[in-house]
Amino acid sequence: MNNKVSIKDIARLANVSIATVSNVINGKGRVSPNTVSKVNKIIQELHFVPSASARSLKDMKSHLIAVVVPFLEKGMLQDNPFYWEFVRGVESGARHHEVQVILLGIDENEDFSFVRQRHLDGLIVVGVFEHTSAFQKLLSLDIPCVFLDSHLSNPDFHQIDLDDEAGGYLGTKHLIGLGHKVIGVLTGKLEEGGVNYFRHQGYLRALRESGIPEDPELVFEESPSIQGGYQVAQRIGNYKSKISAIFAFSDVSAIGLIRGLHDIGLSVPANLSIVGFDDIFYSQYLIPSLTTIRQDIVAKGQIAVKMLLDQIDGTGLGIDKRSVKIPVSLAVRQSSTSYKEI
């Protein structure tokens, strides 16, 4: 049978109304078990697949959602495996709901017209700041949204955040425990309220507890990318007589950093210990394998899409279900080792 089989054909062969076939497909209405069995048998025999556009017209939904990442430089979505793993989690959570997922990077001047043009049912927004015009535009859309890694102050927003401060603390304490006292941090922009800000706060707390003074010269703000990490390696080379460890606030930055250090003649961990953040898939397969702060990125995507679909369906809107904090842990591997004075 060709792919032009329609719901009318199913109704004719089953000797029932089109409405009955629609109820069987959508699991709605009162239909006898015998009729359900007969209709489903014909559907299977004809390999009939319900039209997504017809379903959209029926329930007034597009069954399409978007993962939106604001303010990323061109190409960074493709370069950062974090987003691949996160979208994998979103897709796996959406699959059983017959919802499709698109991934979009936008800039601050985006007018979000794509939301209306593509009739999106909802958005998962990664890393937006409350004070930006993009955030205000998002609110004006008046569609279901879940905010990820944004640390928004308003408890009415549906949001999922990592315990970033705890992650910054864990990574720094690990290095201090290995005897390191001059510990640099490789971070993206340190903007108050962002994930890097909270990770840096954890770093500072660990220093204070150990009586290690803060040194602003040890903070390297750079694009959270492989290229950004590589470029910082050149700058760190000027401090090689005192820096013994670097805590990178993303694994992709750590990967670029390790390669950059290699190219200027510094070995990890012999010359510098490195800790990353995220535990992306590749971290354990690097040489040396990367010590990092672990978060379950795929599970994070699954939680985000469930929270969004609950909004779209009008369920699970209790205030106690609007905010989720994801825990972190430390994965110790080969890139960090005990301090040895040179």
Automatic annotation (TrEMBL):
Residues 5-59 form the HTH lacI-type domain. Gene3D superfamilies: 3.40.50.2300, lambda repressor-like DNA-binding domains (1.10.260.40). Pfam families: LacI, Peripla_BP_3. It comes from the Bacteria. Keywords: DNA-binding, Transcription, Transcription regulation. One of its GO terms (molecular function) is DNA-binding transcription factor activity. CDD domains: HTH_LacI, PBP1_LacI_sugar_binding-like. This is Transcriptional regulator, LacI family. It comes from Fontibacillus panacisegetis.
